[in-house]
Amino acid sequence: MEGFVLMSTQVLPKEAWTRTQRKTLFAGVGSWTLDAFDFFVLVFCLTNMAKEFGITIIAATLAITFTLVMRPIGALIFGPLAEKFGRKPVLIVNIVTFAAIELASAVAPNFATFFALRVVYGIAMGGIWGVASALTMETVPEHSRGFVSGVFQAGYSMGYLIAAIAYGLLIDVIGWRGMFALGAIPILLAFYIYFNVEESPVWKATRGQAGQQSKVAFWPAVVKNWRVLVFAVFLMAAFNFFSHGTQDLYPTFLKVQHGFPASR
Description:
The chain is an all-alpha fold and about 260 residues long. About 80% of the residues lie in helices and about 0% in strands.
């Protein structure tokens, strides 16, 4: 009995981070940060793009709206693909896709083409969060997952910050099309992931027979935990409501209503 008490109160040492885990964290947070950067480039360049295409700002905001509308569809497409083929290859394809679309947006000849590209971009953007977070959370030490989840989410704000700095420094030099051309930079991260990041150990352990068992048990688990699922969906919807409801048009508010120059 005494031995049992000693064992039950013993604090196990925390698992040390490996080099592989640190690389995966960098890749995961980097994916989400650069994805956010590519999205917020449009937010900062909205008035510039609208002026060149000869449309109103209200019409231009449709590109933002439908990017966000298509994100859930992207999550429903890339999520199952990551379950079937692995997190790493799907994340690489996802990054290359949204970076290529961002580059294509830079050379769009008219708003109709630009709008169509942003719709497809929304699908690509929707896959990043789920796939990158799964790869990251399934790789890092368990005791660090709470901390890592905060770091991971902060990547979105970091992407906004990088876009703001880039806009202030470069918009008068390279124009709004040049800003979108910068959105091809994430392709370099795809190469980094290909050569330096390993597949999720959880996915490797559950593929094959174990993976089939996990797949069969998926829907019973959803039914059993449907209250938590619904709560999480409404919670994230509320977060996105008050974040995108203000931040996406804040640069336009400063430029149009207050007449601030890009540098300010």
